[in-house]
Amino acid sequence: MIDKQPKVAAIQVNHCGKIDAALDRAYKVIEANINGELKGVDLIGFPDHWLHTAHPHKNVEKIPGPTTDAVGDLARKYNAYVVISLYEQGEPGRFVWLNHPMPYKVYNTNVLIGPDGRVVGTHRRTNFTICEALGNDYNVFDTEIGRVAMTSCGEMCYPEVMRIYALQDADFLIWTSTHIDFRGIEHMPADKMPCKAPPLDLPLLYWKVQVRNSMRKWQAWKPPVFSSVVAWQNDFVVICANSSGEEALAGTAYKMQYLGGSRISYPFGILAKAGAEECAIAAVIPDLEEMRQMRELFRASRRPETYGLVSALENLRAEKPCASDSFASTWSSLSGERQCYFPPLEEGSNQE
Questions:
Q1: Alpha-carbon distance 245 to 317, whole Å?
Q2: What is the distance between the terminal CA atoms of the chain, rounded to a whole angstrom?
Q3: Cα(121)–Cα(68) distance, rounded to whole angstroms?
Q4: Please, what is the Cα angle at 168 between 166 and 169, to 5 degrees?
Q5: Cα-flanking dihedrals φ and ψ of residue 134, to 5°?
Q6: CA distance 82 to 279
Q7: What is the pLDDT of residues 250-304, one digit of tens each?
Q8: What is the pTM of this model?
Q9: Contacts of 316 (CB under 8 A, 6+ apart)
Q10: How many other C-beta atoms are found inside a 10 Å radius of the C-beta of residue 232?
Q11: 3-state secondary structure the chain
Q12: What digits encode the pLDDT tens for the residues 144-199?
């Protein structure tokens, strides 16, 4: 039983291009709201890619590292748990990432930092990335206010991920997201795209017509719909933190516009929502125990012995792929210039 009603928050901030500037902006947003919206806050979420610069390959670091140390100072100052997203240095080897050769794997990683400034746990993004290596774990972490899970941007599209968290009794899901306005991006040259047309067998026309246009429409309803539906289906709180403002795309005249729209949802409705501007939103969770009881009720009535059909259909699809699988297979491929990994050479090997 938790002694108090937890207070959670999402900080919607502009991209700055430099980590120090981003942290300074975060302090300003928090300070402007610490005696109002954020007073007594227990758990704070920041957007995906918020700390990444225009040249992210230069800002890959280990965890713990300088950025988690800096955010640890912020967590200590406000006596709160804080979740951030950063590029993590992983296993050694030769890894091509964003067309840059790297001596290690690179992960898009969420980090939970405690009020004492120490790293509580991490989550490496597991789905929907064509740039970083993929993680495989779905951990939920005990805190003084409840059990906390983390998810990154497009992972929210996968209901299996959310259900795994619910079955581990997650109370809070921090969703670090990057909500971009894709209007006009279909006219942008393919070689200037933030994520260029994938290699291998995906035609450029398919990329332009299907992917870019559908992404533009998808982004328009992602935060308000996903956060509410996931909270309702899984009986936990969803803290969706999105970016705001503009960010110049390195080497082009194109600017990505971040739409904001951060939300705090729980099974019984939306507790707080943001517009498009830089801001902080927060909410007290009024009935955490009731939410847990609802989760237990639905879990008791599930019939997992009948869900084997999911795996059976997945296996069948793998045996008999259809034409529509070409995009999925290309998206997850580790070959091409976008992402490839070669393990370290064994000691004494003469291979190049």
A1: 41
A2: 58
A3: 11
A4: 65
A5: -105, 135
A6: 16
A7: 555 667 778 888 999 999 899 999 988 899 999 999 889 999 999 999 889 999 9
A8: 0.84
A9: none
A10: 16
A11: CCCCCCEEEEEECECCCCHHHHHHHHHHHHHHHCCCCCCCCCEEECCCCCCCCCCHHHCCECCCCHHHHHHHHHHHHHCCEEEEEEEEEEEEEEEEECCEEEEEEEEEEEEEECCCCCEEEEEECCCCCCCCECCCCCCCEEECCEEEEEEEHHHHHCHHHHHHHHHCCCCEEEEECCCEECCCHHHCCHHHCCCCCCCCCCCHHHHHHHHHHHHHHHHHHHHHHHHHHHHHHHCCEEEEECCEEEEECCCCCCEEEEECCCEEEECCEEEEECCCCCEEEEEECCCHHHHHHHHHHHHHCCCHHHCHHHHHHHHHHHHCCCCCHHHHHHHCCCCCCCEEEECCCCCCCCCC
A12: 999 999 999 888 888 999 999 999 999 999 999 887 765 555 555 555 554 443 44
Q: Tokens 């967590």: give the residue.
A: 75
On whether the CB atoms of residues 338 and 199 are closer than 8 A, the answer is yes
pLDDT at residue 191, as a whole number? 53
For residue 290, how many other CB atoms are within 10 A of its CB?
Answer: 12
What count of residues does the chain have? Answer: 352
Neighbours of 286 (CB within 10 A): 12
Contact 59, 72 (CB under 8 A): no
Residue 43 has pLDDT above 80, yes or no: yes
Cα distance between residue 236 and residue 247, in whole Å: 32
Token digits of residue 240: 């969706």
pLDDT interval class at 326 (50, 70, 90): very low
Residues 54 and 15: their CA atoms lie apart, in Å, by: 10
Cα angle 189, 194, 199; round to 5: 75
Cβ neighbours of 120 (radius 10 Å): 18
Q: Are 336 and 200 contacting, i.e. CB atoms less than 8 angstroms apart?
A: yes
The CA distance from 165 to 24, in Å, is 33
The CA-atom distances, in angstroms, between 90 and each of 134, 138, 177 are 11, 17, 22
> Which one, of 254, 256, 224, 255, lies nearest residue 240 by Cα?
224
Q: Which residue has the tokens 């299907």?
A: 210
Q: How confident is the model at residue 208 (pLDDT cuts 50, 70, 90)?
A: low
